[in-house]
Structures are given as structure tokens and as C-alpha cells.
Amino acid sequence: MVIYGASGYTGKLTAWKLAERGIPFIAAGRSQARVAEAMEKVAELRGHDYMCVGVANEKEALTDLFKGRKVVINIVGPFMQLGRPVVEACLTAGCHYFDTTGETDLD
Hints:
This protein is an alpha/beta fold.
């Protein structure tokens, strides 16, 4: 499982709940250092099976990360500016996709 956009508030909550259920995951974002710093603040993750990665918000880079994964939870924002490559990468990699956006495109 991959949490993309893991460094924010919702990403940390998602990581915590996955850890409670014993589900290993990859915490990913555009900055590996920022993701790792955010995950360090979640006490419930101590001793849990996860890793932090940085990845460009580009279809090809995301596809490489998602290959072989079953599920991607997209928490990146703003969704209208950053979400499309994630959706396309999930389709290419053949994994399930979920997001947390409530945004609507008014264009």
C-alpha cells in the first residue's frame, strides 16, 4: 500500500490507522525528508513496517513506485493541480486508487 501525500495532516492520520491494523505501507511524497519528518511525529508508527520515499509528481516516476503495489491512497493537494499524474500512474501500474479530495473543478 502507498500513501501518496503522506506528510500532511490526513496523511499522518492514515499512516496511524494503517499501523493500528498492522498494514505495512510506503509513505510517499515529493520530498522524502519532509515525509520522514512527518512520520517521525506519529508515535504509533514506532516499530511498524513502513518506509518513506520521495518521488516526482510525474506519471512515469509514480508508475515505477506503484508497480507491484495493490493500493494507492492519494492525499496530495491541491488535487486539481497535482492529482492527474497519480490517477494515470495507478491505471498504468494496475493498482487500486483511492483519494480524499472534495475539490470540484469549476473550469
